[in-house]
């Protein structure tokens, strides 16, 4: 025999109701069954609400009429129930009060009506059902509202009652209700029909209890909150108990116990998806490591502190006795070994009462100053991770901290596997995502805000769009861009971007403050945040520190933050450290070439770097590679470089050497040198008289440059070529190094001399590599290699 239980929601809508009938029909063809029902929809709440209106002498007639008028109440004659309810409400309204006994009698009508309505429909479909009132055999004590079932007596009565039923029919039994030996109606506590069903299964020695709900089963996390939560197919009774928060009463110890006792499996099924096999809970051993995360909301944290409590015996007992007497149950408890204070959680609605109770209990200690404070922190949530112990909790925990969520309280069970964290309510959803993602190795979502959508920024966005799917498949990383902006406007998207992003940014971008970006991320519970600066804006770097303080990692191709004052450089790094955030800027020097990372690693590993020398600028590389070997005037070579897009719009920015200087400074600071931009000796290749004119005027007379460079070229020795180099030298163990940029002659056969096209080349000299430098060479400029470099930084961060 199977017991089928249908919850209120399964009976509430027409569609679900039809399914219920279909399910029952199918089951009766395979098996003998008995059905247990809850009240339809939210009937119990409605009946209770009307009761309170009656008590408060408010208008209870209107809602009561509305209740009677419900369409599912029209199909059969419910005069008996409605007349009784009418009388009871009238009485309560007259007395302006009611007892729990009256309340039970009222609420019970919900289940009585429900079993009658369902039975009627089954009969109409030619299915031989009979409505059964459980008050005939569920004998309880007289604790109204929370009655205890007398199991032995009830069992005996149940089996006699069921023997009396015609073998052609099956019972549709009221859940939730029973009666005292005197015949007074009682209820078993809210959501009690799950308990009724478990008891019935036990009494009738059923071989399975099938609990039909509105969800497919038990999940690794609430699927409404976590999209990629997975259904758990099988659970052991022991674990189910820990998961009680999920199915509330379905998995409550009290509900499970009658099943454990007779070893009856419980299957959780979905009325609207009956083909699904649901979650099976039984005594069968299951694969170890079943894990699931639940969240309890509306919790408050109370902390009692006092210097005088140290080592005094009996304080804890007094706390919990006082709370117990006030009917307040305590969740997580935490006490440090110093015993100076005790923290615990209670339901939010009970919190202020709990504080009152404790204030009263410890009145004397307050006076004697042994107790200093009773602190109440409302709006917290408890995340419980079932099946998780401390051996492998390092990753989820680190991920939490990285996402700026520090648990207020941490708790693990001594036996069994269960970890609970108390976090602020506002962090709960994000914490759930982060932990769930870590534990189940599910795709890690990286949320990106990209600033700057010009050449480099735009290319990056397109590159991300093009490879997002492959990255998700290969690395389990989902890259999600939630904001695209420049230094003036931003466009937010909840759903992520499409190939159409340029148009959307142009049409929907709005002026913004960085706080709005931060709030957007917060409101949407976005985790793993990265802000990317592909602007060339000086103003934008002001946002770096606020972003870091609010949980963003940083990536930039913008060089400014690394070359403004050493003060800012230091402060930013201090903030990064304090906030456990990273800042990557591999493209600041040599575009996508793995230069900065290499230098960082060498330096970190204690390798003594003695000198760095190289061609830092792609445009200057091209110009001198050509000019040295070709028999053309300098202006012609420069013109070609401009035409190929190798230079800045005003080529003097390249020829001034400033860009090379900035890059040199970035490398120097990587080696902990504290140089400032002004301290770099920069050779400006623009003759003085051409330095201050406007761009068009300058571009119109490039030949003016020729004599200057012609002279330099004439002085070259045979087999040497010109190169514009940056060089970092000196005693690099000191606070400051020597930083120079200069045009030099180099022998043709050296690495520098062999350079072609617009390549960059860096020679890194270290103590252990001696005279042979490490050489990093390749395309060191251009939008697409730079964007790739930024992309590399994103993946580097995502991997952490
Ligand atoms: N109808 C009752 C309630 O809502 C019992 C149940 O649904 O299990 O609490
Ligand atoms: Mg219910």
Structural summary, described in words:
The chain has 800 residues and is α/β, with parallel strands linked by helices. It has four domains: 2-41 and 112-282, 3-Layer(aba) Sandwich (Carbamate kinase); 292-440, VC0802-like (2-Layer Sandwich); 444-588, 3-Layer(aba) Sandwich (Rossmann fold), CATH 3.40.50; 595-781, Dihydrodipicolinate Reductase, domain 2. The protein is built from 29 helices and 31 strands. Helix 13 crosses helix 14 and helix 22 crosses helix 23. It is elongated. Aspartic acid binds at residues 8, 38-39, 44, 110, 175-176, 190-194.
Report the mean per-residue pLDDT as an integer.
92
Extended strand count:
31
The helix tally amounts to 29
Lateral strand order in the biggest sheet: 3-4-2-1-7-11-12-10
Report the end-to-end length measured between terminal Cα atoms.
54 Å
Instruction: Give a quick account of the main beta sheet: strands, pairing sense, barrel closure.
Output: 8 strands, mixed
Rg over C-alpha atoms, rounded to the nearest angstrom: 37 Å
CATH superfamily of the largest domain: Acetylglutamate kinase-like
What is the structural class? alpha/beta
Unreliable stretches covering 5 or more consecutive residues: none
Domain Aspartate/homoserine dehydrogenase NAD-binding: 452-586
Domain Aspartate/glutamate/uridylate kinase: 2-270
Domain Homoserine dehydrogenase catalytic: 594-795
Function: Bifunctional aspartate kinase and homoserine dehydrogenase that catalyzes the first and the third steps toward the synthesis of lysine, methionine and threonine from aspartate.
């Amino acid at each position: 025999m199977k017991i089928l239980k249908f919850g209120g929601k399964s009976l509430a809508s027409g569609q679900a109701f039809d399914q219920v009938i279909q399910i029952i029909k199918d089951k009766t063809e395979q098996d003998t069954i008995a059905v247990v029902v809850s009240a339809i929809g939210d009937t119990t709440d409605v009946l209770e609400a009307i009761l309170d209106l009656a008590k408060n002498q408010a208008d209870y007639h209107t809602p009561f009429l509305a209740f009677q008028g419900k369409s599912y109440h029209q199909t059969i004659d419910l005069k008996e129930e409605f007349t009784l309810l009418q009388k009871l409400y009238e009485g309560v309204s007259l007395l302006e009060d009611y007892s729990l006994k009256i309340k039970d009698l009222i609420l019970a009508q919900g289940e009585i009506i429900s079993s009658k309505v369902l039975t009627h429909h089954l009969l109409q479909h030619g299915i031989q059902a009979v409505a059964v009132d459980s008050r005939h055999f569920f004998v309880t004590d007289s604790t109204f509202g929370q009655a205890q079932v007398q199991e032995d007596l009830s069992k005996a009565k149940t089996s006699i009652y069921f023997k009396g039923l015609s073998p052609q029919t099956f019972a549709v039994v009221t859940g939730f209700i029973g009666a005292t030996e005197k015949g007074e109606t009682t209820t078993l506590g809210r959501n009690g029909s799950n308990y009724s069903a478990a008891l019935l299964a036990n009494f009738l020695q059923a071989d399975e209890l099938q609990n039909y709900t509105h969800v497919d089963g038990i999940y690794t996390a609430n699927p409404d909150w976590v999209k990629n939560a997975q259904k758990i197919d099988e659970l052991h009774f022991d674990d189910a108990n820990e998961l009680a928060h999920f199915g509330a009463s379905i998995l409550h110890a009290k509900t499970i116990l009658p099943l454990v006792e007779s070893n009856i499996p419980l299957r959780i099924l979905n009325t609207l998806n009956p083909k699904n096999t649901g979650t099976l809970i039984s005594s069968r051993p299951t694969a170890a490591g079943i894990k699931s995360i639940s969240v309890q909301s509306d919790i408050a944290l109370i902390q009692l502190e006092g210097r005088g409590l140290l080592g005094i015996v009996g304080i804890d007992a007094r706390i919990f006795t006082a709370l117990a007497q006030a009917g307040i149950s305590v969740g997580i408890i935490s006490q440090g070994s110093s015993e100076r204070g005790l923290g615990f959680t209670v339901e939010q609605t009970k919190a202020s009462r709990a504080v009152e109770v404790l204030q009263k209990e410890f009145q004397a200690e307050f006076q004697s100053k042994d107790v200093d404070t009773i602190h109440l922190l409302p709006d917290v949530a408890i995340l419980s991770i079932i099946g998780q112990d401390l051996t492998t909790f390092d990753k989820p925990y680190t991920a939490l901290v990285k996402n700026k969520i520090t648990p207020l309280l941490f708790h693990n069970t001594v036996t069994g596997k269960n970890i609970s964290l108390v976090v602020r309510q506002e962090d709960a959803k994000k914490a759930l995502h982060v932990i769930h993602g870590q534990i189940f190795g599910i795709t890690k979502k990286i949320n990106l805000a990209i600033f700057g959508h010009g050449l480099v920024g735009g290319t990056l966005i397109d590159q991300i769009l093009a490879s997002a799917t492959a990255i998700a498949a290969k690395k389990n990383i989902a890259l999600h861009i939630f904001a695209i902006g420049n230094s003036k406007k931003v466009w937010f998207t909840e759903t992520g971007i499409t190939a159409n992003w340029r148009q959307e940014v142009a049409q929907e971008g709005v002026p913004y403050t960085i706080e709005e970006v931060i709030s957007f991320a917060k409101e949407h519970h976005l985790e793993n945040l990265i802000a990317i600066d592909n602007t060339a804006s000086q103003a934008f770097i002001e946002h770096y520190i606020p972003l870091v303080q609010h949980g963003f990692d940083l990536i930039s191709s913008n060089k400014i933050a690394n070359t403004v004052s050493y003060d800012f450089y230091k402060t930013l790094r201090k903030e990064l450290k304090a906030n456990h955030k990273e800042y990557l800027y591999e493209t600041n020097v040599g575009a996508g070439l793995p230069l900065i990372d290499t230098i960082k690693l060498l330096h970190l590993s204690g390798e003594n770097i003695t000198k760095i020398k190289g061609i830092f600028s792609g445009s200057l590389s091209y110009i001198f590679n050509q000019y040295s070997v070709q028999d053309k005037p300098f202006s012609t070579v420069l013109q070609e470089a401009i035409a190929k897009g190798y230079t800045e719009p005003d080529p003097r920015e390249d020829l001034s050497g400033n860009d090379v200087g900035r890059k040199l400074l970035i490398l120097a600071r990587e080696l902990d040198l504290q140089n400032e931009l002004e301290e770099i000796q920069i050779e400006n290749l623009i003759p003085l008289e051409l330095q201050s004119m406007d761009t068009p005027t300058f571009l119109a007379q490039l030949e003016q440059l020729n004599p200057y460079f012609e002279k330099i070229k004439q002085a070259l020795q045979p087999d040497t070529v010109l190169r514009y180099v940056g060089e970092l030298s000196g005693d690099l163990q000191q606070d400051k190094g020597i930083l120079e940029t200069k045009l030099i002659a180099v022998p043709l056969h050296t690495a520098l001399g062999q350079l072609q096209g617009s390549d960059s080349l860096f020679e890194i000299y270290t103590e252990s590599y001696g005279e042979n430098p490490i050489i990093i060479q390749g395309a060191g400029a251009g939008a697409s290699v730079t964007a790739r470099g930024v992309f590399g930084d994103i993946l580097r961060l995502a991997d952490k």
